Amino acid sequence: MSTTQEKQPHWSLKQSFAERVESSSHPLTSYLFRLMEVKQSNLCLSADVEHARDLLALADKVGPSIVVLKTHYDLITGWDYHPHTGTGAQLAALARKHGFLIFEDRKFVDIGSTVQKQYTAGTACIVEWAHITNADIHAGEAMVSAMAQAAQKWRERVPYEVKTSVSVGTPVADQFADEEAEDQVDELRKIVPRENGISSAKDTDGRKGSIVSITTVTQTYEPADSPRLAKTMSVGDEAVFPGIEEAPLDRGLLILAQMSSKGCLMDGKYTWECVKAARKNKDFVMGYVAQQNLNGITKEDLAPTYEDDESATEEEAQADNFIHMTPGCKLPPPGEEAPQGDGLGQQYNTPDNLVNIKGTDIAIVGRGIITAADPPAEAERYRRKAWKAYQDRRERLA
Ligand code: BMP
């Protein structure tokens, strides 16, 4: 199978995440690109821990280093399904506090009618708390449009109320607008101690970086029963990450186009069908879970012998700006060059191989961080490596 590496690199591989904001067709993708620049992070934590309380504690500790937190709610013991105060709602509060999106790795696959219900109803009611979910489209493209329809219906159904809030905006000047804002930033600073995010106003004139901001009073329409506004949450849980506004309420889908596991049966033909489904459903599909960059890819690249009438036009392929998230990521142990598999079929690549060489955008790391002696410190190490891989890619292709 040939790859994009043999062709001229697609424009999206050369651009910064900031530059890709404008040409994103999905509001949540635009938001995520901006968040990635603000936090200087292209790291997703796969939070596959045993108990709900461990999940929440881990999300709170590692939150400052990541832009996406990936869950498998069905492997978590003690998941509380209450829509306003349960585990999903609590995770949503942590996502607001630290500035990350929640990605439920549910891998939906069924007929459209069933996936609609699995996504927006049932015990877990995934659409309520997960900004992003994913689908294995072996059941056919119709399930993608069915999920898009369900997400849209959910979005329209959510009752609205006007919320008046004081928010701390993007750093703009060297003085605080007033004392109240300064206090507010101090409080938020305790929550986000790492030198990134709001500290992007740093040091252009040689002085120590300072957090500078203006206070703005905004009126926004918020869904009355959204976990983002859970009334029963304690005051501390209402904190909002100061570097960027809250995530939009739009929901997004990642298509599971390729997997990291040994012997995976998803062949080039399947991946090509994923690319077509993504291009057809740009309002809902943010991108892919994949092992390589698929932007600009053609049938000839993926499945040359597959007889398919629907070939992509050059124009269509050029317009791609999908985001790519990649699991099977680990750093090798000290003294070794490559990370070993887990003995159960999982295959690992380094962040450099995935982001710099294969051109994916977000590295998904689970056990590499979770089983470390100090998960927050290890998450920081992965964040730096994955971000460097992104910078190296841009330098290499410039
Ligand atoms: P770990 O880094 O501990 O191997 O975890 C990888 C995570 O990514 C798991 O949650 C797994 O279900 C998920 N995953 C994967 O490993 N490979 C894929 O191709 C798709 C996945 O969702």
Automatic annotation (TrEMBL):
The lineage of its organism: Eukaryota, Fungi, Dikarya, Ascomycota, Pezizomycotina. One of its GO terms (molecular function) is orotidine-5'-phosphate decarboxylase activity. Belongs to the OMP decarboxylase family. InterPro entries: Aldolase_TIM, OMPdecase, OMPdecase_AS, OMPdeCOase_dom, RibuloseP-bd_barrel. Pfam families: OMPdecase (PF00215). It comes from the Eukaryota. GO terms for biological process: 'de novo' pyrimidine nucleobase biosynthetic process; 'de novo' UMP biosynthetic process. Keywords: Decarboxylase, Lyase, Pyrimidine biosynthesis. Its EC number is 4.1.1.23. One of its GO terms (cellular component) is cytosol. This is Orotidine 5'-phosphate decarboxylase.
